[in-house]
Amino acid sequence: MPDRHTFERQFLENLAWIERAAAIACAKGGVKGAEADDFVSWIRVKLMEDDYAAFRRFRGDAKLTTYLVTVVQRQFYEYLREQGGRWRPSAAALRLGPPAGDLEALVYRDGYTLQQAAEKLRTGGHTELSDVELARLLARLPERGPLRPVVVSAEDGLPGAEGREQADDRVIAAEGDALRQRVLSALERAVARLEPEDRAVVWMHLVDGHSLAEVARMLNVDQKPLYRRLDRLRRRLREYVEAEGIADSDVLEILSDRRAA
């Protein structure tokens, strides 16, 4: 079994890669100057926490550099939440209108579960929609975080944005973003093929992390049949995404990132 020294060595060997990935996350998120420097320092410490826990969780399903880009991007949004960073509603939320923007902010910015966000919206007088209706609305909103590769220029203030390092920056952005975009797009298409209530089950249990007891209560259905129903839905979704060349392990990794983000 790898020991602490192995993970420390991996951290040091990939430190320059981590720092460039952090700089790109800041540039894409509109964070510059001293605040960007603060995040780069923050992510170094974060990746060293608990004896390099982030490295210990690496399963080898992808390249270590790709995994690290995903971790850095996820931690960037945690950092923004901790620092009260800027937040703008997505184009989809603006197009859908109230309460999509408030729902999106509560779930993706503030970290509320769907059930908690729904209750907060209703008690605040922002909506009368049920949990199921709000789950369907949330399913129409994009997972927050840039999904398209970004070409970073010298104007973005990244260190060494010329020659080889500029090419490396594009690789870093592309490796993390391309996989996430491909998986999320395939999963979105797969979920869209399900019936409305099945989509709500998938969203609340597999994506939002609710227990089946909570799902049954929110949907006002019997809990016991949900187990067989969920097995059937998992098989269907697996068939849909595998038909597009997506590995089931990649889907699980992205869903895990969404719940942790």
Characteristics of this structure?
single chain, 261 residues, disordered C terminus
What is the compact description of this entry?
By secondary structure, the protein is an all-alpha fold. The protein contains 13 helices and no strands.
Low-confidence stretches: 145-164, 257-261
Based on secondary structure, the structural category is mainly alpha
What is the overall silhouette?
Answer: globular
State the distance separating the first and last CA atoms: 28 Å
Mean pLDDT: 75
Rg value: 20 Å
Strand content: under 5%
Could you estimate the helical fraction of the residues in percent? over 70%
What is the H-and-E element order? HHHHHHHHHHHHH
Question: Largest sheet at a glance?
Answer: none
What is the total tally of β strands?
Answer: 0
Count of helical segments?
13
Characterise this structure.
The chain is an all-alpha fold and 261 residues long. The protein contains 13 helices and no strands. It has helices at 4-13, 15-28, 33-56, 64-83, 91-96, 100-109, 114-123, 131-139, 163-192, 196-207, 212-219, 224-242, 248-260. Helix 8 (131-139) crosses helix 10 (196-207). The longest helix is centred in the last third of the chain and has 30 residues, at 163-192. The protein is globular, with a radius of gyration of 20 Å. It starts with a helix and ends with a helix. Mean pLDDT is 75; it is low at 145-164 and 257-261.
